[in-house]
Amino acid sequence: MSLSDLANELLVAVAQFLDAERDIDAFAKSNKRLYSLLIAHLYRYNAHNSSASALVWAAKTGRVETLRRAVSTGVKVHEFPLLPIASDNGHLNFANLLLRTPGVDVNVKDEDGWTSLAAASRQGHVDLVNLLLAANADLQTNDAGWTPLSVAANDGHLEVVRLLLNKGADVSVPSETGWTPLRSAACNGHFEVAKLLLAHGADVHVTSERMWTPLHSAANSGHADILELLIDYGANTAAATADGWTPLALAADKGMVEAVNILVAKGADVALPCGNGWTPMTLASDSGHVPVVQILLEKGASVDSPCINGWTPLTLASGAGSVAMVELLLDHGADIKATNESGSSSLLIASDRGHCAVVESLLARGADVLSTSRRGFTALHTASENGHVEVAELLLAQGADIAVGNFSGWNAVHIAVQNKHPELVEMFLRTPGLDVDLKDNYGRTPLYHAAMVGNAVMVDLFLARGASPTISDSYGSKPIFAAVRNGHEAVARRLLAVSPYPFEQLDSFGHSLLWWARRSGRPGLLQLVRQHITMHDPGAELDEDMEPETNPVKFIENACWCKVCTRCTVLGTTSYECTTCDGGEFVICAECHDAGVRCRKGNHDLIPHSCNRIA
Q: Are 411 and 546 found together in one domain?
């Protein structure tokens, strides 16, 4: 017996026994009779068990016949949000049929809270909007506070906006975050929409939760025509957001030339600062917007007016690396000697950031290559700190003094070593007349610093250039002590190879090299020093049972370190600082402090120090 021989009731029973939609579908498609017999069951099953996926697909693609068939088979189509889907996709006939289907609500919302009218308005489907309005669709907000008018204005659908306004849509209803239809249109540059909204009474002064007006949004987006329109309707060019931003400041920061032109032509104050102290001039200078700065200068903006922390337009432009901006400002009389609150001039700032072309321009215009910041840093120091070889070469060629030290007495070579820039060190070592053993405030040479930070490459460079490994610092320590104290075995091996160290010789703390090797906690380093002593002082009595310290102080790059013993003992432990010596950068660990050592001057009060240089 074949399937065609079975009674209809049995075939339906078989289909109802199947629990997978794909199986029912395959069964129904086995012949025409089965398909006609089971199609109603298949639609009902899909609606009940698959969230009416077939109808959702039909709504997205506009398949009206699928909807008709579902209705004819008894599927309760009103239980599913099909109308917003069809409206969003512009299927007029599908939506029309739905609206004629009993139980379908014109204001039903989809899973995102969008009504059919909002969806159609968002997409600009004029015919659908007409249809839905005729069916008394709600003009009010969706779940996010957006009205059909808001979304139509946001996307620039002029005819939809006109329809909604003529139907009585409220022109001023904001979203939950304060976006009115007018602000949306202004932000996105929809001039005709904005004009229509204003003609229907839209308020140019209404603000969002962050105090943004439509004028702010238009300025931020650079829509000059809308700016002019809004100002003609009374918008306030001096209005400030919650963060203190004026429309002109926003336009200047973004480089919106035409917007800036309109705003200043309409009377915007070019000197009015934001809440953080930045003016349109400093914002545009920092961002490199030369045409904007030209406009502002022509309208009377001060070329030297500083913003927060004393930054002038020229110092900002120098830091940003804009040669054209620097030249423009200097041509208008900008003070090349002006500094920010840290005492850094435009030359120091450009050197710090590696802007060689700006450095060259500033030097050509008379910048002082020897000027210093409040930390005693020169332009050469800042270039050295950041490893800018080309800038350093340019500064040296223009008379920078490589021997000048900062408040710690560190010269450019010391600074390059501490910041791990071997290429820069190598360049400095080629400088004619360089004293390779120049000392800082503590009598420490660049070789000493290289030994302290454990940079074997730079140690080799200094030794090859003839640097002395036997020069002691103010505390009686030679470079080998700095290497051993900080656990740098490779560096210690190099230094011991070129300068044997007597076993009995102690530093000013009364400790030997072997004692420090044990404190380092490194077995290899302890063994190296022990072997060195045995080789060069066979009669030395060594403690054969000496073991490395089990909880040593480890060297950590970028951490604060004691200016006395040079170890990173200040991290996470008690330590002290002098706010006077070394420009306030003298730090001493508790161990050295308890041993009676004080700051360089010896008579300053010390305060607790907390290392915040690393996490």
A: yes
User: Are 474 and 442 within 8 A, CB to CB?
Assistant: yes
Beta strands across the sheet bearing 607-608: 586-589, 575-578, 607-608
> Is 9 within the bounds of a domain?
no
Banded model confidence at residue 148, pLDDT cuts 50, 70, 90:
very high
What are the residues whose beta carbons fall under 8 Å from the beta carbon of 497, sequence distance 6 or more? none
- What CATH code is carried by the domain that includes residue 468? 1.25.40.20
Average pLDDT, the chain: 91
Cβ 204 vs Cβ 182: under 8 Å: yes
Question: Residue 566 sits in a domain of what CATH number?
Answer: 3.30.60
Instruction: Count CA atoms closer than 13 A to 437's CA, side-chain side.
Output: 13
Range of the domain at 499: 406-552
Higher pLDDT, 110 or 17: 110
What is the per-residue DSSP string for 128-196? HHHHHHHTT---S--TTS--HHHHHHHTT-HHHHHHHHHTT--TT---TT---HHHHHHHHT-HHHHHH
Question: What are the structure tokens assigned to 549, written together?
Answer: 């310290």
Q: What is the pTM of this model?
A: 0.85
> 537, 552, 567: which is the final residue of a domain?
552
Q: What is the pLDDT of residue 20?
A: 53
pLDDT of residue 39: 58
Give the Cα separation of 339 and 459 in Å (integer): 36
Shortest CA distance to 603 belongs to which of 587, 582, 585, 580? 580
| Per-residue pLDDT tens over the stretch 497-556 | 998 888 788 998 899 999 999 999 999 999 999 999 999 888 777 877 789 999 999 999
Cα–Cα–Cα angle for 63, 69, 75, nearest 5°? 110
My answer on whether 413 and 493 are in the same domain is: yes
Last residue of a domain, one of 505, 522, 552: 552
